[in-house]
Write a structure and sequence with these properties.
Helix content: 40-55%
Radius of gyration: 17 Å
Order of helices and strands: HHH
Strand content: under 5%
Number of strands: 0
Oligomer: single chain
Shape: elongated
Largest sheet: none
């Protein structure tokens, strides 16, 4: 199963579909879930940076988008 919805992922895990990744604060709050610490990293996923068309030419937005594009790649790698 593949989902972008944390609640759908938790529901699938709780109903026995398998294991999955959820944020720690979510998993910790749900009784019966086991925390596995050393599972392999998933393949890279896409990340979209969306900007309203009217804002794309605004200088501060271009600088901010460039900053995100350059720095998020390092964080996700």
């Amino acid at each position: 199963m593949r989902s972008n919805d944390v609640l759908a992922t938790v529901s699938a895990i709780r109903h026995g579909l398998g294991i999955g990744r959820v944020p720690g604060f979510v998993g910790d709050a749900i009784p019966g879930l086991m925390h596995f610490k050393d599972i392999p990293v998933l393949p890279r996923q896409s990340l979209w940076l969306l900007t309203h068309p009217d804002m794309r030419k605004v200088s501060r937005m271009r600088v901010f988008n460039a900053f995100l594009t350059e720095n998020i790649i390092d964080i996700l790698a």
